[in-house]
């Protein structure tokens, strides 16, 4: 007998006068089961479906996504998918919904749930990390929020009409808080002023990490090593400028990731009427990122939540970048020593011993003493010598 037939048989026997214990013993069920279905028959006996199983799902769900919002999420994603240069992850969809005037913006978990139910979600793929094969790298561990900034330059990019601009992007490694500035022209003095403007808002870090672009580091002359306004500003403010290895942009991976998000979730998704329109929307996007983008590295907290209540060290509005290289502080340069045994410091080459090859080292340039130390990952000094530094900026 099927389960439904057993229920009908139990009720028939009970109506015929059998006790619940007798029925339970005969049908291999409990007396509680018998009483349940007899009661169900008494409630719904006039209906043919009384013996069928009822759904245990709740009649209503207060957390169910409204149909209108669901349709808006799916439509926003479809528009982004139609743009071959755009991303369509949850943050990009949130930004698109914001542009369409949706308020409040649904959290990323809601968007991911809607996409999953529509069969549009894809499994998360971890981008391959660019780690040298088995070679330890002097990357800081357990970076506190507000202490280390990664800085990068995006551009030149162009608006319609041939308007050129650059974006100076900055990410705080410990919190993933973003900040940036849009520049009409890319020159070292303007970059220094732009960096000062950002630090006057988010605070001055202990370390600023750059790639080896000449706009960040400065120039080279036969007799001296010249550094530029960006390095001079760092030293003047007590910030250690750190330069990553040559041709290894992934060592600035946090800001490189933000560059990609900024490009595909913001810049590629909208047509800007001019540089002022771009700047206004850019400020809104960066603020949106800091309050809405949630990182697994912070337990699902947004950058704004990580930084909430933390002391910052903002610059005074009257601060002016120096016009000469200050005779203080240190400059760090990370390099990989290849089989040629050379450590390339912006054109100045230092040769180390044969047994010091195939490892990452850090060259510490002491500005006041005009000395350079090359240090291994375990702290061993493998070179100590003079380093001629000009105080003139290039």
Topology:
Blueprint (H helix, E strand, L loop, with lengths): L2 H13 L4 H8 L3 H14 L22 H16 L7 H10 L8 H10 L30 E12 L3 E10 L5 E6 L4 H15 L4 E4 L3 H4 L11 H8 L3 E4 L9 H13 L9 H18 L10 H5 L22 E8 L4 E4 L2 E4 L7 E8 L4 E5 L5 E6 L8
Parallel strand pairs: 1-4, 4-5, 5-6
Antiparallel strand pairs: 1-2, 2-3, 6-9, 7-8, 9-10, 10-11
Helix pairs in contact: 1-2, 1-3, 2-3, 4-5, 5-6, 7-9
Descriptive tags:
single chain, alpha/beta, nine-stranded mixed beta sheet, two-stranded antiparallel sheet, 11 strands
Describe this protein's structure.
With 394 residues, the protein is of the alpha/beta class. Among the domains are: 3-51; 67-117, no CATH class; 330-386, no CATH class. The protein has helices at residues 3-15, 20-27, 31-44, 67-82, 90-99, 108-117, 188-202, 214-217, 229-236, 253-265, 275-292, 303-307; strands at 148-159, 163-172, 178-183, 207-210, 240-243, 330-337, 342-345, 348-351, 359-366, 371-375, 381-386. The strands form 2 sheets. It has a 9-stranded mixed beta sheet, with helices on both faces. A two-stranded antiparallel sheet has the order 7-8. Helix 7 (188-202) packs parallel to helix 9 (229-236). The longest helix has 18 residues, at 275-292. The relative contact order is 0.10. The model is unreliable at 126-131 (pLDDT under 50).
Brief rundown of the structure:
The protein is of the alpha/beta class and 394 residues long. The protein is 34% helix and 18% strand. The strands form two sheets. It has a nine-stranded mixed β-sheet, with helices on both faces. A two-stranded antiparallel ribbon has the order 7-8.
């Amino acid at each position: 007998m099927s389960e439904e037939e057993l229920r009908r048989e139990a009720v028939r026997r009970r109506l015929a006068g059998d006790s619940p214990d007798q029925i339970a013993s005969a049908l291999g069920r409990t007396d509680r089961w018998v009483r349940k279905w007899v009661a169900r028959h008494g409630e719904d006996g006039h209906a043919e479906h009384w013996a069928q199983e009822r759904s245990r799902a709740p009649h209503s769900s207060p957390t169910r996504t409204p149909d209108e919002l669901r349709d808006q999420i799916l439509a926003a994603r479809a528009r982004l998918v139609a743009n071959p240069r755009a991303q369509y992850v949850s943050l990009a969809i949130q930004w698109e919904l914001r542009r369409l005037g949706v308020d409040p913006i649904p959290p990323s978990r809601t968007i991911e749930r809607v996409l999953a139910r529509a069969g549009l979600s894809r499994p998360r793929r971890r981008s391959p990390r660019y780690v040298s094969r088995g070679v330890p790298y002097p990357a800081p561990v357990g970076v506190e929020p507000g202490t280390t900034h990664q800085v990068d330059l995006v551009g030149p990019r162009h608006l319609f009409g041939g308007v050129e601009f650059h974006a100076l992007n900055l990410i705080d490694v410990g919190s993933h808080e973003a900040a940036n500035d849009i520049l009409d022209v890319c020159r070292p003095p303007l970059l220094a002023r732009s960096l000062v403007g950002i630090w006057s808002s988010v605070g001055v870090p202990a370390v600023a990490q750059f790639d080896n672009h000449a706009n960040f580091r400065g120039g080279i002359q036969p007799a001296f090593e010249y550094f530029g306004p960006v390095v001079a500003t760092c030293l003047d403010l007590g910030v250690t400028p750190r330069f990553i290895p040559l041709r290894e942009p992934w060592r600035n991976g946090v800001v490189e990731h933000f560059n990609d998000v900024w490009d595909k979730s913001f810049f590629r998704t909208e047509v800007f009427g001019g540089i002022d329109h771009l700047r206004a929307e850019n400020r809104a996007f960066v603020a949106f990122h800091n309050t809405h983008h949630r990182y697994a590295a912070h337990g699902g907290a947004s950058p704004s939540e990580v930084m909430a209540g933390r002391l910052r060290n903002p610059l005074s509005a009257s601060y002016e970048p120096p016009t000469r290289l200050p005779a203080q502080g240190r400059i760090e340069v990370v390099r990989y020593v290849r089989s040629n045994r050379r450590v390339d410091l912006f054109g100045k080459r230092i040769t180390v011993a044969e047994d010091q090859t195939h490892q990452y080292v850090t060259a510490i340039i002491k500005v006041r003493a005009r000395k350079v130390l090359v240090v291994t990952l375990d702290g061993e000094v493998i070179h100590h010598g003079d380093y001629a530094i000009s105080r003139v900026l290039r």
